[in-house]
């Protein structure tokens, strides 16, 4: 590999692979280098518990994956990627046996909130439900990577999404709508009162109504494998088990694109204190389960859902997030995001068995064990859950950071999604994918539009790269 490459990508997560694909299909020569012995980043699948039980160590449900503007331009289905849907994208049970749902249908979702909030919810999402394709493309291409196709809808979304979610939730009268929406916002692991947190909840809700919250058949690894196969067919190369400690470890190239944390790119590329002010957020404690049967939810709706949010009300969610983000301790009653992939994809486990995962929020770098608190919380909403457990695999912040170097302190979002850093990351700049080194770019979820398996950070960074390459001849 002595000849000069157009681009080298460091890190074979979904964003790194997407950046490589976008450059390769525009005729640039590309090679990807991954420290682990397989591709995937946050989209992997492994047998973590027992033989035959296939678990996703990080991302499992993919509302932003199926809705991704860049994935929709790629023939990933030809390379084995198939989306599978549960009857309901998401459910949120309550201790009294009731539940609210996020369904594909706006009407079904609104009805689950009760008569006092059904109309409010329909009015909230009505301006966007017929325009999600262009809205997601415009929203996820910010800042300055593409002109908006529908600036009026984008501006309207901005007006609805910029206020804190606590303001938006005041429109609702009852706890069901407030709690479900608070749980949607909590997917970014930041306090509910932050600026633009309303936009987070709206994006997840609109994604469910537009495309659903599916899983990938066989596991999230299928997404990464499809991207890798497509890249290979385009002439790109992928090298695994190749740790990069400095730029000199890489072959000569006109551009270097990093699917890493800002901390890592600064160290490897010698960028000094460029990202010194970048903040990492709360960590998570995750448990993967092999189960002898389905989760015994008291409510009927979560038995049919791919994702289940677990907390009694919005106050419990807010307290858990505050303690993990700012209070410096793990909550006694953690808010749980859980996914039960085998509801949609029985191939993940032996016949009659199930895989299931749950995580709760903890302070960054926390070294305790949240397993007992997680299972106490699950038993409130699914009595007898513990009796179904055949095996479990736990991972707190230290283990998560060891598995994936981007998860500093267990922060699976690769940076705190609060304050200005929710929108302007990794630093305040109109060119977030550029670094002070003219040949070095950043494409990880530390850049807009942020966390999630959607590839748009990689796509946006690739645009910056190919413009620079064309300018330089």
Walk me through this protein's architecture.
Helices cover 32% and strands 15% of the residues. With 473 residues, it is α/β, with parallel strands linked by helices. It has a domain at 5-81 and 216-279 and 417-471: 3-Layer(bba) Sandwich (FAD/NAD(P)-binding domain). The strands form 3 sheets. A 7-stranded mixed β-sheet has the order 5-4-10-11-12-9-13, sandwiched between helices. A 5-stranded parallel β-sheet has the order 7-2-1-8-14. α1 links the parallel β1 and β2. α1 (14-24) packs parallel to α10, α3 (106-112) packs antiparallel against α4 (115-125) and α8 runs parallel beside α12 (314-327).
Question: Summarize this, please?
Answer:
This protein is an alpha/beta fold and 473 residues long. The protein is 32% helix and 15% strand.
Question: Keyphrases for this structure?
Answer:
473 residues, alpha/beta, FAD/NAD(P)-binding domain, seven-stranded mixed β-sheet, 15 helices, 14 strands
Give the secondary structure arrangement, pairings included.
Blueprint: E1 5-10, H1 14-24, E2 30-33, H2 63-66, E3 83-84, E4 88-93, E5 99-102, H3 106-112, H4 115-125, H5 132-140, H6 151-161, H7 165-168, H8 175-185, H9 197-210, E6 215-216, H10 221-233, E7 237-239, E8 253-258, H11 262-269, E9 283-291, E10 305-310, H12 314-327, E11 336-339, E12 354-362, H13 371-381, E13 389-395, H14 397-403, E14 440-442, H15 456-471
Parallel strand pairs: 1-2, 1-8, 2-7, 4-10, 8-14
Antiparallel strand pairs: 3-6, 4-5, 9-12, 9-13, 10-11, 11-12
Helix pairs in contact: 1-10, 1-15, 3-4, 6-9, 8-9, 8-12
